[in-house]
Design brief:
The chain has an 8-stranded mixed beta sheet, sandwiched between helices. Helix 1 (70-83) packs across helix 2 and helix 3 runs antiparallel to helix 7. It is built from 10 helices and 8 strands. It is α/β, with parallel strands linked by helices and 264 residues long. It has one domain (2-260): Rossmann fold. The model has no long low-confidence stretch (mean pLDDT 98). The protein starts with a strand and ends with a helix. The chain has helices spanning 70-83, 96-107, 127-140, 146-153, 156-161, 163-174, 178-190, 217-226, 242-245, 247-260, and strands at residues 2-6, 9-17, 23-27, 49-53, 89-94, 112-118, 204-209, 231-235.
């Protein structure tokens, strides 16, 4: 584990793999930390320098007062990469991590080599829905929404057959700081990246889980259609967190994408 002050906050991160190799950054979903990538990362350690980090408000990183913006998250990552002397990176982003990746590819295209956008979209949900979720967690804590979230995160079969593992991921979610969770909800609520999607000019793969209750396949597919030459892939069966539920399949898709982009 490593900690650095970047963009005015302490970020928890880890650097693994091939020092000096092309950099691959994994970016987490709302309510999770970088442990969600633990079964995906090993597939890339022989060829890439892998960067994992907990975004603001999550994991062991600082949780400054809410609300946050998508650009706050982008600024955090850019500051971290500057500290690590990373000029360009391929980004793998899940859910809000995918929104951060999209925004970064538009803001600083010279810093991004490729995108893998997992279970995400140019716009996720309605403002009213996010306002209701923020109000619920601020009043009653994350325990009040955890059941609904887990139903979106994982398929019914995963929740039944891997109940102990599901309980562990539940622990991760409910231990997220409330203001960190709410702050990032606000960032998602206020972000509409649709108009800029056509400006993304790097090789892009969009991946959906067939049973994702947060960003259903059609939403992910529509985002892929907005991004020039983006490819869409569907993982079956999977919910919103395929890096946990189907890590082998997701690793293969990411690897193929990086190879096709000439980065392997």
């Amino acid at each position: 584990m490593a900690f650095v002050r970047a963009n005015g906050i302490v970020l928890h991160h880890q650097v693994l793999g091939r020092a000096g190799g092309p950099t691959l950054v994994f970016m987490n979903s709302l309510g999770s930390d970088f442990r969600i990538w633990q079964e995906v990362v090993p597939a890339f350690l022989d060829r890439f320098q892998v960067v994992l980090y907990d975004k603001r408000g999550h994991g062991l990183s600082d949780a400054p007062p809410a609300p946050y913006t998508m650009d706050d998250h982008v600024d955090d990552l850019l500051a971290l990469l500057d500290i690590l002397n990373v000029e360009r990176a391929s980004l793998v982003g899940l859910s809000v991590g995918g929104m951060i990746a999209q925004r970064m590819a538009v803001r600083v295209p010279d810093r991004v080599q490729s995108l893998t956008l997992c279970c995400t979209a140019a716009k996720i949900g309605m403002s009213e829905t996010w306002a209701d979720r923020i109000a619920a967690v601020e009043k009653n804590g994350l325990e009040s929404i955890v059941g609904n979230v887990l139903e979106r995160w994982f398929t019914a079969e995963f929740r039944r057959s891997r109940a102990d593992e599901c309980a562990g991921w539940r622990n991760m979610l409910v231990r997220t700081p409330v203001h960190g969770y709410a702050g990032t909800c606000a960032a998602i609520r206020d972000a509409d990246l649709t108009a800029d999607a056509g400006r993304i000019a790097v090789p892009t793969l969009c991946v959906a889980g067939d049973q994702d209750g947060s960003t259903p396949p059609d939403i992910v597919r529509r985002t892929a259609e907005l991004i020039p030459d983006a490819r869409f892939e569907l993982i079956e069966p999977a919910g919103h967190i395929p890096c946990v539920e189907q890590p082998v399949v997701l690793s293969r898709l990411i690897g193929q994408h990086l190879q096709e982009a000439g980065l392997v």
